[in-house]
UniProtKB/TrEMBL annotation:
Keywords: Lyase, Metal-binding. Residues 10-186, 227-401 form the Class II aldolase/adducin N-terminal domain. GO terms for cellular component: cytosol. SUPFAM superfamilies: AraD/HMP-PK domain-like (SSF53639). GO terms for molecular function: aldehyde-lyase activity; metal ion binding. One of its GO terms (biological process) is pentose catabolic process. It comes from Termitidicoccus mucosus. The keyword Ribosomal protein does not apply. This is Aldolase.
Length: 427
């Protein structure tokens, strides 16, 4: 469901539930608000369990100074009010204490979003606000002054993060994306040198204008694929194989057509009708496919056996791609059988370098690639086959991270790999 159609109370409750479910806040931590066009501020209450928040719990502080609601507003209402006063363009605020961003806040470091182009574009300017007591007017002044300097994401010294957006959806997506980058950077730091993208690669590359496809009624096959793709996108989100802003899934319809996730749509809000039918140079009228559509089109044209494609940025696999660390899949039989060897490719832009990147894919020999700073590119015979590879990739990477403090990796010996190739027909 498109959350923008919800009442502010419901938007705040649904977003807080999501943040709590993803363990990015605690029962007592964090607060959210939305500014109404009339100047009223809807805000989460003080001293109410964040995991059991109800619409009736939300408080509205009206522009005339009166309040509506069952509870007191959050104790940190002063900084929400001051941010809105200093930044008229901001319509919603997210404040929480997610683990990775708290780690950065207590080390006085800023997450470097230059490791991924979309994160850099979405999160905008990030800056620190000096410490002050929670709930104090001084903290409100410190945070608001940092927002007034042009920041959209404000790290709080020894506290957490405050993020603004035009609406709650944008504020949440910035929040989730910045926490994901911080988590990945923290993981990647244990592997080696982190490689940010050069400035010329940070500019967002858009798809060329696509011609409209003729309007046709979807076949039962297309309806089935749209539903299947939505199901696996939702599963991927729940398992943190992707976040709300990043990741593209597609499935082949015929020799030239495929169905793909839309551009800039919250992955949890995807429904079959919102998916986009596309070809190399056309798409459904009035829709925008993922920026990966060009890449997927070239892969399908070059590989008739491929029935589904996934671009994703799961946490542990991304840590490998940000540090250009080779990934060892000779760990357990499943990893090698499902993934084969996983090469690390130099950075390729999914739009500008689509044809070159597509040439690297092979269902038999290279069904999974890691691309520097872009994460994973996975193909399969069908959607389930591709999704299984994505799951196994991230599970393999996570196991490698868990093994690091335990001792040196002992991979399967060459004769075991030779046997797996023979028994399971690994190319």
């Amino acid at each position: 469901m498109d959350s923008s159609w919800l009442h502010p109370r419901d938007q705040l409750v649904e977003t807080m539930r999501r943040i709590y479910r993803l363990r990015m806040t605690t029962t007592s931590g964090g607060n959210l608000s939305i500014r109404d066009p009339d100047g009223g501020i809807w805000i989460t209450p003080a001293s109410v369990d964040k995991g059991r928040l109800r619409p009736a719990d939300i408080v509205c502080a009206h522009a005339d100074g009166t309040r509506t609601g069952l509870h007191r507003p959050s104790s940190e209402f002063p900084f929400h009010r001051e941010i809105y006063r200093r930044r008229p363009d901001i319509g919603a605020i997210v404040h929480a204490h997610p683990g990775a961003l708290v780690a950065f806040s207590i080390c006085r470091q800023l997450p470097d979003t230059r490791v991924q182009s979309l994160a850099h574009t979405l999160c905008g300017k990030i800056a620190y606000a000096p410490y002050a007591c929670p709930g104090s007017e001084q903290l409100g002044q410190n945070i608001a002054a940092t927002f007034a300097s042009g920041a959209d994401c404000v790290m709080l010294e020894n506290h957490g993060v405050v993020i603004g957006g035009r609406d709650l959806k944008e504020a949440f997506q910035r929040f989730e994306t910045l926490e994901f980058v911080a988590q990945t950077l923290a993981k990647a730091a244990s592997l080696g040198k982190i490689n940010p993208l050069p400035d010329d690669q940070l500019a967002e590359r858009l798809l060329p204008e696509l011609a409209p496809l003729p309007d046709t009624a979807p076949s039962n096959r297309e309806k089935e694929l749209r539903t299947q793709l939505c199901d696996f996108v939702h599963r991927s989100y729940e398992q943190r194989l992707l976040i709300s802003t990043v990741g593209a899934f597609s499935a082949r319809l015929d020799e030239t057509q495929f169905v793909i996730t839309p551009r800039r749509r919250d992955r949890l809000e995807l429904d079959p009708a919102g998916m986009v039918r596309a070809t190399l140079d056309a798409c459904e009228t009035g829709k925008r496919p993922s920026r990966n559509a060009l890449l997927h089109a070239h892969i399908y044209l070059k590989n008739p056996g491929i029935g589904a494609i996934i671009n994703a940025q799961p946490l542990h696999a991304c840590a490998y791609s940000m540090t250009r660390t080779p990934l060892v899949t000779h760990t357990i039989p499943e990893s090698y059988i499902v993934l084969n060897d996983v090469p690390m490719l130099p950075y390729h832009c999914a739009v500008a370098d689509a044809e070159r990147l597509a040439a690297e894919v092979s269902l038999a020999k290279r069904p999974v690639l890691l691309v520097e700073n872009e994460g994973a590119l996975v193909v399969g015979k069908n959607v389930l086959d591709a999704f299984d590879r994505l799951e196994v990739l991230e599970a393999t990477c996570e196991a490698l991270f868990i093994s690091r403090p335990l001792g040196p990796l002992v991979p399967m010996p060459p004769d075991a790999i030779t046997e797996l190739k023979r028994v399971f027909n690994v190319a």
